[in-house]
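Async update (no meeting this week)

Hi team, since we skipped the sync, here's where things stand on the single-chain job. The sequence we agreed to prioritize is pasted below, unchanged from the tracker. I ran it this morning and attached the output directly underneath so nobody has to dig for it. Comments welcome in thread, and please keep replies under the output.
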Amino acid sequence: MSAVPSDLRQVLVAGATGLVGRCLVQQLCADPGVGTVHALVRKPLPMQHPKLHCHVVDFAALPSLPPLHEAYLALGTTIKVAGSQAAFRAVDFDANLAVAQAAHAAGAQRLGLVSALGADARSAVFYSRVKGELEDTLMAEPWAGLVIARPSMLAGDRASLGQPHRRGEALWGRVDAALGPLIPKRWRAIAAADVAAALAQAVPRARGTQVLSSAAMQGAAARAG
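Output:
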């Protein structure tokens, strides 16, 4: 394999088997400014690309990471799938934070996070509270640029990824399809590809902390061409 030009970005995606993570990997591999896409996964990805390097890891005991310019956090689950609040937190907070810290130690100066609409460390809702606590923790870290995406319900084909059906996403998808324009834009279901595109566009040039609302991310994939 030929050496990667030093002016090309070295990027990392954690959660590459999920809806947004898969789209991020595809979009970053297609970006001519990216030299290598490192994907942290629990099992090998069913996709190949000359830029893609998969690393099968234990997120509770991460190895040292290769040199990086930027990283994207797309790890996430549900309490139902995880089995308990503690197991949910181990993924959505602990694993994401561990990757962020390891990426920073590997030289990453910019970070993109897939959070959620309603994330708030003071929320009475456990899911939203954990998402908000992660946001606050990452904002306290010395990133040159931090981009937080807060999507509404994600639209995408989880079955094709071998992931369990998420009742909430399916229900909201039917409501969204039925009511369409009557639903405020910030609440409408959003394509995973739009979330990925918004992050992929914003992170490389980020300065300080930027929050991307679900409404602002709608149609990002189409705008990216």
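Quick observations from my side:
The longest strand covers residues 34-41.
The CA atoms of residues 76 and 91 lie 6 Å apart.
Reply here if anything looks off.
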